[in-house]
Amino acid sequence: MTDSAEQQEQVHLDGVIGKIKVAQQVASEDIATAARDRKDIERAFGEVHLNTGSYEGMTDTAMSLRAQQQMLDERQNSWQHATQRLDVLQKLEQTPYFARIDFQEGPTGKPETIYIGLGSFADSPDHFLIYDWRAPISSIYYDGGLGDITYQTPDGPQTVDVKLKRQFQIKDGVIVTMFDTDEVVGDSMLMEALGNASDTKMKSIVTTIQKEQNQIIRDTNSDLLFVQGAAGSGKTAAVLQRVAWLLYRYRGNLTAGQVVLFSPNQLFNDYINQVLPELGEQNMVQMTYLQYTNRRLPKIQVETLQQRFEATTDDQFRAVNTLKGSLNYFNVVTEYANHLEQADMRFRDIKFRDQVFISKEKIAEIYYSFNENYHLANRLSATREELIKILNRRISTEIRDKWVEEAVQNLTREEVDTMFGDQPREFDSQDKEYRFLARQIVMKAFKPVQLAISRSRYLNINAQYAHFLRHVPAMLDLSAQGISEAQWQASVEATLSGYRNHQLSLADTSAYLYLYDMMTGKKGEKAIRFVFIDEVQDYSAFQLAFLKFSFPRAKFTLLGDLNQAIFTQENSRTLLSELSTMFDPEKTRVVQLTKSYRSTQQITDFTKALLVDGEQITAFNRAGNKPIVSVAPTQSAQEQRLLTQLSANDQAHETTAIIGKTLAACEAVADQLKAAGVKATLIRTENQRLVPGTLIVPAYLAKGLEFDAVIVWDASKKVYYDESERQLLYTICSRAMHQLTLLATGELTPLMDRVPAALYTRETVTA
Ligand SMILES: Nc1ncnc2c1ncn2[C@@H]1O[C@H](COP(=O)(O)OP(=O)(O)OP(=O)(O)O)[C@@H](O)[C@H]1O
After folding, report:
1. Which segments within 230-370 are labelled E, that is strand?
2. With a 6 A CB cut-off, is 242 part of the ligand 1 pocket?
3. CB proximity list for 367: less than 8 A, separation 6 or greater
4. Is 236 in the pocket of ligand 1 (CB under 6 A)?
5. Does an H or E element contain 328, and which?
6. What is the pLDDT of residue 50?
7. Where is ATP annotated to bind (predicted)?
8. pTM here?
9. Ligand 1 centroid, distance to 232 Cα (angstroms)
10. How far from the centroid of its chain's Cα atoms is residue 571's Cα?
11. Residue of 243, 228, 134 lying closest to 530 (CA atoms)
């Protein structure tokens, strides 16, 4: 490449930036105009006189208010649109684009040149100076090198002959480097991107999206897209890009509020919440499964992440919990709920002033009076109608009661005025006026009853759930699950007594809510169009089936690494086969990501050796130090070693996370560091924020995060002794980007036995 090529590109860049600045000016003026218009309308709003003297007057007022509101909404929209536009333009001014592609469509097509950036920019309706990275044509940048490349358009596949692929690094409007490449996405660019230090916030990967990741990002056909990828293979990164892509692809028909991401914990939500804004989009709805379920049961304390992780796992508990997480159990709940159409629905009396108003027996009689064509949802709504009729009859008779008459007579002028509200007041007789007021008084008194009916409070979900649990042995062969009937009944009693103390396990919460939704005929949240579930290996099949039921119109993207199952362990292996029965196989796509980008080659080689079948994982070729495994004879020697490692990491400008197995272990480390005068932040709960500097994090909160340097505290035999902890240790070690240290006291964990000695530096600390 000649100097002049670079000069020409800089001239082109300057021209584009000049035009972006002009467009910024226009957008700023649009914002000001929209804001001014809005003020004017708001002022006019205040001047609309509320004419409530006559019925016509009220209608006129209402109409003019509505028209004003509409104008206000329009101005609000154009204000928002212009603000978003300005935001994108400001980003573009710094780095307008990162790639140039020259191509030709067919042998006779004319040669074209496009530039690709974070957003599109045109100086006239048909003249694009920059194409959005999400535009169909931009796909050729991610999907291939030079020559014929096919990309998908809304009208079907298109092939073009790519003649030139040029990548740029532009900083503050100046080309820092540029090079031509015939690779998919030049490794040097990726190397540069990956060489950066870790941050408390994840960044977008728009300039270096890999071909396999691009497949995930641009998928539109699958109802279920399952991404199985090694630690650090960019599952989370790709999926955030996918959200941005979907918002672009379905602009006008899809909003960020119709996309939900279920993430492993709140800390992780915080970690990723800058990526979409960086891409000029709004964040999707983000929550954890626990938050999703707990918000529906505010009075119940659903088992937290820590409780779940540190729960006792005796075999009996494990078998019951495994059963409660299975698809089989989900089907049992469904079957049980359907059976309630015939019998066994539990009701509660509807009370009025502490007296039984409609008895549960009466409600049951009504509920079961409809024929078998009435299913759960319409049976309930038919019952509701009957109950409302009973209430209305009672209101009509109650009107004549003495207390009501007295109440009407005692009404003050103001009370009468509020009761009439916007109602016309002309009555042809005094009696009619009296009846109107009396009815209002009675209806107000019966409001709690009306609410109890409309909110189905006469359903007794607690009794129903207890009945269901006791009924399970009749519906399922427990012995096939390795559970005796006595064990099951003991677990039922434990669940119910926990419930009386307002506590419920996550597995029971899911079943409880699903049963409730079935009983009340809820059909889920239809507005949600895309659901993403990160770290899906930690979900049970029951939870996934429940989410599918809860979001019936959504397409699902599930991301997981079966090697990082820290809650469900071996169950996660059956998850894929259970999933395949939930979704149409024709509309299911499974993508494997095997290349790990997070860590250096040395760390990836080490972590994959920890796994029993980690062969498939390949490292991105980036060199670093071998992991250090240090065994000290005493606890205090291990503490000393921790201090020297921390200061070595500090000197190398690597931010360290010390990852302990439990919160208690992390607290102990935090105390030691404090005593030694070393500054570090202990992350106790998922509601904390990640802050710069050394962190101490319990294992179950480190999911999905990454750090420059990781110190595993502590990798002794007494801490990690069981085969079932292999995946946990793998998950922890794979958080490290550049530097990994495992510290142990006494004997090293036997989980290290399978790691070849050549893959790490072993140290023995002397006392
Ligand atoms: N195409 C890419 N270009 C640049 N960086 C990338 C790319 N893909 C992944 N990365 C980086 O690699 C790191 C790991 O990515 P990410 O956290 O998405 O992986 P993951 O598969 O979700 O990992 P885990 O399962 O371990 O949580 C991140 O720092 C991410 O920015």
Report:
1. 259-262, 285-287, 301-302, 350-352, 355-358
2. no
3. 345, 347, 379, 380, 383
4. yes
5. helix 327-339
6. 52
7. 229-236
8. 0.85
9. 5
10. 22
11. 243
**What is the DSSP track for 270-296?**
HHHTTHHHHTT----EEE-HHHHHHTT
Residue 235 CB–ligand 1 contact under 6 Å: yes
Which amino acid makes up residue 717?
Answer: K
For every residue of 54-95, DSSP letters joined together read SHHHHHHHHHHHHHHHHHHHHHHHHHHHHHHHHHHHHHHHH-
Residue located nearest, by CA, to atom 23 of ligand 1: 232
Beta strands (DSSP E) in 404-516 are: 503-504
Task: Please give the distance, rounded to the nearest whole angstrom, from the Cα atom of residue 365 to the centre of ligand 1.
Answer: 59
The mean pLDDT of 321-334, rounded to a whole number, is 93
Q: Is the ipTM of this complex over 0.85?
A: yes
Cα dihedral 750, 755, 759, 765, rounded to 10, equals: 10
For 570-618, give the DSSP string.
Answer: GGHHHHHHHHHHHS-GGGEEEEEE-EE-SS-HHHHHHHHHHSTT-TT-E
Type of residue found at 741: T
The number of angstroms, rounded, from the C-alpha of 466 to the middle of its chain's C-alpha atoms is 31
Query: Measured between alpha carbons, how far is 579 from 560 in angstroms, rounded to an integer?
Result: 13
CA nearest ligand 1 atom 9, residue: 234
Residues comprising the binding site?
A: 229-236
Using CA positions, which residue lies closest to atom 3 of ligand 1? 208
Which residue's structure tokens are 């009501």? 404
Residue 529 pLDDT level (bands cut at 50, 70, 90): very high
Rounded to a whole number, what is the distance in angstroms from the first to the last CA of the chain? 60
Any idea what the Cα angle at residue 693 is, between residues 687 and 695, rounded to 5°?
Answer: 50
Q: In angstroms, rounded to a whole number, what is the distance separating the alpha carbons of residues 112 and 163?
A: 10
CA dihedral 307→312→317→321, nearest 10 degrees, is: 30
Of 213, 293, 235, 215, which Cα lies nearest the Cα of 539? 293
